[in-house]
Amino acid sequence: MPKLSILIPVYNEAGTISALLDKVLDVPVSYSVTKEIVVVNDGSTDGTKEILDQYSGKIVVHHKTVNEGKGAAIHTGIKLASGDFMVVQDADLEYDPREYNILLQPVMEGFADVVYGSRFLSGHPHRILFFWHSVGNRVLTFLSNMFTNLNLSDMETCYKLFRADILKNMDLKEKRFGFEPEVTAKMARVKGVRVYEVGVSYYGRTYAEGKKINWQDGFRALWCILKYNLF
Questions:
Q1: Which of these, 220, 208, 212, lies nearest to 181 by C-alpha position?
Q2: What are the tens digits of pLDDT across the range 159-195?
Q3: pLDDT for res 129
């Protein structure tokens, strides 16, 4: 029976992690796919660790003693995961776990090896927030597409579902939000890889609500596009 590993990097999300894990645990997965939940606590200091310990036996948890960044937490999750497929899930409730089946469909029906969940394809709720964030996202996606020769609409999306062997064979380096352009660049070079994109919902949050990405991460993403595609 195929297994989906759900990789959840967590840093100081005591306010949302319990609700998120309850949703992930409860969501039914189609195609007779089982779930494995792999949470990497990236050195949280706000009580996240204690909340995660309450889910002992239901999830796989790894506690880091030092905060290294989202990318580094995902690297650890990839090593710990044992599923046939992997998807990244943020811990902040911006993405809806009920949409795993939307991501799985192209893979389970034999069309795709990798599926990106786009926040910009029509048909799903999308919270209206920051104009310049959306501009920056589209610029980064456009530049990434130029080098990878893909036609993605949302390279920076959290929801990326991979065949596990593709991710486990990548030598990933980026420890923070540079993970997105790096994994996209390296995925695009996998011989014969079949990439699909599906629309997903986006319940974005403000900085007051805990959003962590900033303008410096945008410049790092730009550098990563150049670094991992040209060099």
A1: 220
A2: 999 999 999 999 999 998 899 999 999 999 999 999 9
A3: 57
Q: What pLDDT, in 10s, does the model give residues 71-115?
A: 999 999 999 999 999 999 999 899 999 999 999 999 999 999 999
The SS3 assignment for 121 reads coil
The CA distance from 148 to 82, in Å, is 29
- Tokens 């089982």 identify what position? 34
Task: Quickly count: other Cβ atoms within 10 Å of residue 214's Cβ.
Answer: 11
3-state secondary structure of 160: strand
Q: Tell me the pLDDT tens digit for each residue of 48-82.
A: 999 999 999 999 999 999 999 999 999 999 999 99
Q: What is the DSSP letter of 42?
A: E
Residue 150: which residues within 8 A CB-CB, separation 6 or more? 144, 184, 188, 195
Secondary structure letter of residue 210 according to DSSP: T
Asked if 3 contacts 31 with a C-beta cutoff of 8 angstroms, the reply is no
How far is the C-alpha of 55 from the C-alpha of 34, rounded, in Å?
A: 18
Helix H segments across the chain? Answer: 17-26, 48-53, 70-80, 100-108, 131-148, 164-168, 179-188, 215-230
Answer positive or negative: Cα dihedral of 126, 127, 132, 137. negative
